[in-house]
TrEMBL record:
UniProt membrane topology term: Multi-pass membrane protein
Record protein name field: Claudin
Keywords: Cell junction, Cell membrane, Membrane, Tight junction, Transmembrane, Transmembrane helix
Organism in which the protein naturally occurs: Esox lucius (Northern pike)
Pfam families assigned to the protein according to its UniProt record, in alphabetical order: PMP22_Claudin
């Protein structure tokens, strides 16, 4: 594998992993919409863990969701997917660092290092897929409620936390693709077959002196 590709893939995966850590605690996953409201006295915004509100004076008030089981199913699934993305990204970072050619962790075995780097690329792909599914699923529910004319409650719009999650997923998928498509998994050098002619094979090894003349068959003297 090209060392430049390894470094680029590591940087992409690392940036994606950092952005996942930024997106998870971000409070602005969805923000209350002002569309159709004549007077807006407060702004409500939520993420996977809490709901917050701010009034016109700038005072913030946040409360965590009281019960996990009382939440909507997509919020629980998004939580699990985002936590899985952090775990996959951490494993992918360690595997990529070990499998890089400039690393001495796995010795000088190029084949083994390439396989470890490939495993790191797979974990980066899993990180990106988990993040993309979580963020897209959350955004789908926001838009579904927003465009429902019969919904009586507060409507929300997509917040900045989702955009950070999308960027994180794209970076992680790009880093994983660079590693998995460029590494050589277990390629070995192929040697030519020995010369064969009518049932005899030439091994390329000259007879030793210790064998002497007795090493020749009887037909050799005819």
């Amino acid at each position: 594998m090209d060392p430049i590709v390894e470094v680029v893939a590591l940087l992409l995966g690392f940036c994606g992993w950092v952005m996942v850590g930024i997106a998870i605690p971000n409070r602005y996953w969805k923000v209350s919409s002002v569309d159709g409201n004549v007077i807006t006295t407060s702004t409500i915004y939520e993420n996977l863990w809490m709901s917050c509100a701010t009034d016109s004076t700038g005072v913030h008030n946040c409360r965590e969701f009281p019960s996990l089981l009382a939440l909507n199913g997509y919020i629980q699934a998004s939580r699990a997917l985002m936590i899985s993305a952090v775990v996959f990204g951490t494993i992918g970072l360690f595997a990529t660092l070990i499998g890089m050619q400039c690393s001495k962790a796995a010795g000088d075995n190029i084949v083994l290092k390439g396989r470890i780097a490939g495993v790191g690329g797979v974990f980066f792909l899993l990180q990106g897929l988990c993040t993309m599914i979580s963020v897209s699923w959350y955004a789908f529910n926001i838009t579904q409620v927003f465009f429902d004319p019969l919904y009586p409650g507060t409507k929300y719009e997509i917040g900045e936390g989702l955009y950070i999650g999308w960027c994180s997923a794209v970076l992680a998928i790009l880093g994983g693709c660079c590693l998995t498509c460029s590494c050589k998994l277990g390629t070995s050098e192929k040697y030519p077959y020995p010369y064969q002619s009518k049932g005899t094979a030439y091994s390329g090894v000259a007879p030793s002196r210790s064998q002497g003349a007795n090493s020749y068959g009887r037909n050799a003297y005819v």
